[in-house]
Amino acid sequence: MAATKSQGSAFTLFMVGITTAAAGIAYFSTGTGKLALLVGLVVLAWSLFMAFKIKPLEGRIAAGAQPAVMKLVGIIVVLIGWMIVVGGLFVTSSVGGRFTTTIIGFAVSLVGVLYILPAAVNKNAIWKA
Amino acid sequence: MKIVRCASWICALAVLLMAGAVTVARADAPPSASTAELKDALAKAPTTSTLANGDPGGALTGTVNDVPVSDAKAGLTLGDTANQVGQNKIAINFTWTLITGFLVMFMQAGFAMVEAGLCRVKNANHTYMMNFFVYACGLFAYWIIGFAIQMGGAAGNGNLGGLQPLSGEFPVTLFGHTWGLFGRSGMFLAGHTYDVGVMVIFLFQMVFMDTALTIVTGAAAERWKFMTFAISSVLMGAFTYPIFANWAWGGGWLSQLGANLGLGKGYCDFAGSGVVHAVGGLTALAVAMVIGPRIGKFNRDGSANAIIGHDISAVLIGCFILAFGWFGFNPGSTLGASGAGCLRIGSIAVNTMLAGCTGTFGALLYMWVLKGKPDASMSGNGLLAGLVAITAPSGFVNTAGSAIIGFVAGLLVCLSVSFIENSLKVDDPVGAISVHGTCGLWGVLSVGLFADGTSNYGGSWNGVTGSVTGLFYGDASQLVAQIVGIATLVGFVFTFSFVLNWVLDIVFGQRVSAATEVAGLDLPEMGQLGYPEFVLRPEPDYLQVAEQAAVA
Fold this sequence. Notes:
The complex is a heterodimer. Chain A has helices spanning about 5-25, 30-55, 70-90, 95-120. Chain A is an all-alpha fold. Chain A folds into two domains: about 5-60; about 70-130. In chain B, strand 1 and strand 2 (about 175-180) form a beta hairpin. In chain B, helix 5 packs across helix 6 (about 195-220), helix 6 runs parallel beside helix 9 (about 275-290) and helix 11 (about 345-370) crosses helix 13 (about 400-420). The longest helix of chain B has about 40 residues, at about 80-115.
């Protein structure tokens, strides 16, 4: 099964929900704004539920399960690298010192992006079977 | 008491006499030179009857008579003339920014042709439709919230009249400095942001944002479920792109690295190698990782198969359309043609075309010398790589710098395509991750190396007095600011996109079914073949994997 009316309905609901929620945020200081935000979030949740319900009907995909823990580890490593970069800006005020901490942090992030995450997403890749 | 009263009356009389004398003196004074000149110009201006005879040479049209007069009784004043000069400056800048924005909008057509041409014929309609619909998805998301997040605190641009309604940046104070995080003015372009200048900057920034979105469709082509693509694009236009764009262009913390920490002029990205292309390229990498490779792309030993696109002519014409649109992308990023150093637009345009040229040479020569053929698709990608790389430095470098930046990008894109495919085992049908991600990051870095310190956009950049100057011209701190930007692109943008699309995969499912993928996405997903009268030739055996074999 491919694109269906149910998918179209779920997407329509998603658009209605995000628009209403955005209008609620824009006018949050008013009572109508708060109500719009609430309604928008409910409609968004409804669209997610609808999409989640029809997902199993759409046929099997050509992709293996990607280990969640390994992916989380990869994401955390990337974020730690970025934190080193941002934090390093305040550890020292010298250009050389900041250059060093920035490079170290960036290298840590690259380990996550170029080694851990590709290994995670390819661990059960179908082409290995 | 009487004496005091008398003295008071005498003083008052004296003041009155002096005031009267001054008034009389003013009335008798000859008109100032400027007023006299205005009157003289009015007297010499062609009359209606003269103009009725026609003005074939153009010497009579556009005179002092065309300057609006604010008070008919007073006639034309110097104030009227000055106001008209000011409005002319803003009008020139509005027109420039809008027209260059229109050029950037047309790049969507180029992207569509490049991406569809590099995909198989059985997926042509689906690929074209993704490039078509991403425009609507992005625009709508940007209107409802994205623009407010990005530019909602970006007031102060003198080229476009100040943009004062956009003064809602949300700040945090950290280590004694104030840092911008996101904007808050401009949702739905309503209220006080219903403003002529805001509309211009909205249009210009919107087409940039949509460029970033359409990069992702290339990397996930031939297997992306249309519904999930649409939702992912809406969320990218609403959040992913605007957040980083605020940090770089909207008065956010990256742009404040210079003012707050003394790192050069802060993160500098003239037209978006980082903001547009690296954001698009890194999001493309995240989506391609989550969605997985196409059936038949990799063999069991991990070696990659070439899956040839169906229309190289579309690819090369698309590249030319993109190169044409780039003249809007880079020179347009001055946001004006009058005032504040905007006359550098010629230099920016030349840098743009030169980097595209050397990027083509870099990729073509690499393929010809090392692989034996001047590969067409890689040559096209070389052109785009050069253009992507020069986007950030185009306003800050000279022609020699731009030529080097473009050539390096042309080589880099070939190496990156090979690395992503053979080492990372990530399937990117059109090379979007390499062209926009890798070369976008190289463009950001190159500002910190090649900026020659001659640009002068109103005397300062990101609130720091002076010109943007890179390492090779004496400012090492600018290089640090650029690397912080690169690290943020990789550390934040990639991670944000990866998590977002991972969640979408769990809820909606990112990938079409194996049966749909083998059959081609045109009929199952779109209900119509891209080329219904074509007879499809059987694909090679490795691409003829049965559904059962493809599914894990």
